[in-house]
Amino acid sequence: MGPAKDLRAIYEVAVRKVEEENLGKIGDQFVFAEILGEQEYQREMQRQSSRGTGGRWYEWISNALGGDDSPLSANQTVKNMTAVPGRRYEFGIGLDYESKMFQTMTHSENDLEFFAHNDSSIVSKVLEKHPNIKGNPFAMPFDIQMAHGPLWFSSPGNHSLDQKDGILLPHSDKLDNLPEHLDWYDVPLATNLYAATIPSLLHVNGDKSLLDTWWPSL
Fold first, then answer.
1. Which of 9, 24, 198, 213 shows its CA 20 to 30 Å from the CA of 50?
2. Segment among 37-46, 124-133, 135-144, 178-187 with least mean pLDDT
3. Residue 69's Cα: distance from chain center in Å?
4. Total-model pTM
5. Mean pLDDT across 3-9
6. Which of 131 and 80 is assigned the larger pLDDT?
7. Three-state SS annotation for the chain
8. Distances from the Cα of 213 to the Cαs of 110, 207, 217, in angstroms?
């Protein structure tokens, strides 16, 4: 996710890999995984080239003792990569370890619950279904608390100050009469209780029946 120009650069590389390197037959996930792998390889190369004497000594000791976690250490099996001069490898790609942006659903459907966070009794009942969760009660993430309500932009025409705005929509009895005062506490949200996150996207790459059973909750 990000500016279109950044995503366009990634997809241009993906298309090149499919058309020139014939990687499409392996699958799109492999193509993007290789783009990420090449980026991380080059990052590590740059990190190692900028090490001082102390850093090189520490990594030499770690490598000798088998504790070096560098992907380029002698303890790791890495496909050799030859960088092409002038070719871009840095795309700012990161990994969403905590599923804050999106949640893949393979073997994860039991980690999520749909509920509104405005009623402590409902939250307590949800937590009772997961007795192995320890620690403090789940709290609404700060970025969601600070965001506009879920229906704030239900009718773009209500909020644009520029009459030349090309996204203005015509009046709609259904959209323009939605309760704008609702906030994120008032609507059911897919919540990962174990990661303590509310992902903005659900990638249903496991049990496809969830598309039917969960749709009414979205």
1. 9
2. 135-144
3. 24
4. 0.65
5. 85
6. 131
7. CCCHHHHHHHHHHHHHHHHHCCCCCCCHHHHHHHHHHHHHHHHHHHHHHCCCHHHHHHHHHHHHCCCCCCCCCCCCCCCCCCCCCCCCCCCCCCCCCCCCCEEECCCCHHHEEEECCCCHHHHHHHHHCCCCCCCCCCCCCHHHHHCCCCCCCCCHHHCCCCCCCCCCCCCCCCCCCCCCCCCHHHCCEEEECCCCECCCEEECCCCCCHHHHCHHHC
8. 13, 11, 8
List, in order, residues 6 or more apart from 29 with CB less than 8 Å away: none
pLDDT of amino acid 168: 57
Percent pLDDT > 70 in the chain is 71
Choose among 192, 193, 189, 112: nearest CA to 149.
Answer: 189
Chain segment 167-200, per-residue pLDDT in tens: 556 666 766 677 767 889 998 899 888 888 899 8
Look up residue 40 and give its amino acid.
Answer: E
Q: How many CB atoms lie within 10 A of CB 138?
A: 19
Other C-beta atoms closer than 10 Å to the C-beta of 73 total 16
The residues pairing with 203 across neighbouring beta strands, listed in sequence order, are 104
Residue appearing with tokens 């999106």 = 102
Q: Are 84 and 5 in contact (CB under 8 A)?
A: no
Phi first, then psi, for residue 182 (nearest 5°) are -60, 140
Asked if 199 and 100 count as a contact pair (C-beta separation under 8 A), the reply is yes
**pLDDT score of 169:** 61
